[in-house]
Design brief:
There is one protein chain. Helices cover about 40% and strands about 20% of the residues. The protein has eleven helices and eight strands. The chain has helices spanning about 45-55, 80-90, 105-110, 135-150, 150-160, 165-175, 180-185, 190-200, 200-205, 225-235, 255-265; strands at about 10-15, 20-25, 30-35, 60, 95-100, 120-125, 215-220, 240-245. The mean pLDDT is about 95.
């Protein structure tokens, strides 16, 4: 049950029959939000961004497949998540405005190359380099081995270490209230890696995105994210890059991210 006042919970059925749990709240034009790794409607940085956007948008949030209250019909493929997003966008009123964060930004960009359900797109720091990642296949294989041999909790540990979380913070994470919820969606890390693998060379792939698109990155984020965001925006015919002053990757401050998305999506 949603804790957000006035939220309307509903389900949509994706093309493969998977039931996707969603909700809407706020007022104004519709915008669909797409979460990143280990996140869903009740977990991660997106709820705070959603609250701010809800001041002037009707916000549609959903649990990506395998997370929260959504189903998870096998076999997995990145196209299934594109279809899930399209189903939520149809419920919001396609072609819909979409905002994606981190690996959810990558999924939203991929969907924009394949689905007419997206009419305008803002994304923040998709984890994509300016060129194809030569290590992606190796990392995907490592994640698969951890999942199959040691389970989803170990996969969460592996992922957090991969993105630079130091050991003492990992120990603190294990003792936190959010750890069981993160462990419960650990298997979906392979879905995020599949989306990134489907994209491949970001610059080449996103030249086919035809909708107005803003790709933002933090002023103090690592060069990987800043260069990737700049290159992706340049590859999209109606794309633009926006640097957000004073914020860095790993510190997704909701106010400037929401403000930048709102500025672009309300246009």
């Amino acid at each position: 049950m949603s804790e957000r006042r006035g939220a309307e919970e509903f389900d949509v059925t994706s093309l493969d029959g998977t039931v996707i749990a969603a909700e809407s709240y706020g007022r104004g034009p519709a915008v669909v939000l797409v979460d990143g790794a280990l996140s869903h409607r009740a977990l991660g940085p997106m709820p705070a961004i959603a609250e701010r956007l809800a001041d002037e948008f009707t916000v549609f949030t959903y649990d990506r497949r395998g997370r929260g209250a959504s189903g998870d019909e096998p076999p997995y493929a990145a196209d299934r998540e594109v279809e899930d997003l399209a189903a939520v966008a149809e419920a919001a009123g396609a072609p819909a405005a979409v905002f994606g964060l981190s690996s959810g930004a990558a999924l939203a960009l991929l969907a924009a190359t394949r689905s007419p359900a997206i009419g305008r797109l803002a994304v923040h720091e998709p984890p994509l380099s300016a060129h194809a990642d030569p290590d992606h296949a190796t990392h995907t294989a490592e994640l698969h081995d951890v999942l199959t041999q040691r389970g989803p909790g170990a996969a969460v540990d592996w992922f957090l270490a991969q993105i630079g979380m130091p050991p003492h913070m990992l120990e603190e994470m294990h003792a936190s209230e959010s750890w069981p919820a993160m462990e419960a969606v650990g298997h979906t890390l392979s879905y995020d890696y599949a989306v990134l693998g489907e994209i491949g060379d970001a610059v080449d792939r996103f030249a086919s995105v035809s909708v107005p698109t803003q790709v933002s990155s933090g002023e103090h984020s690592p060069d990987f994210f800043r260069a990737g965001a700049t290159a992706i925006a340049a590859a999209i015919p109606r794309g633009e890059h926006r640097e957000l002053a004073g914020i860095a990757w790993g510190q997704p401050s909701p106010d400037p991210i929401a403000a930048a998305a709102a500025d672009f999506l309300r246009a």
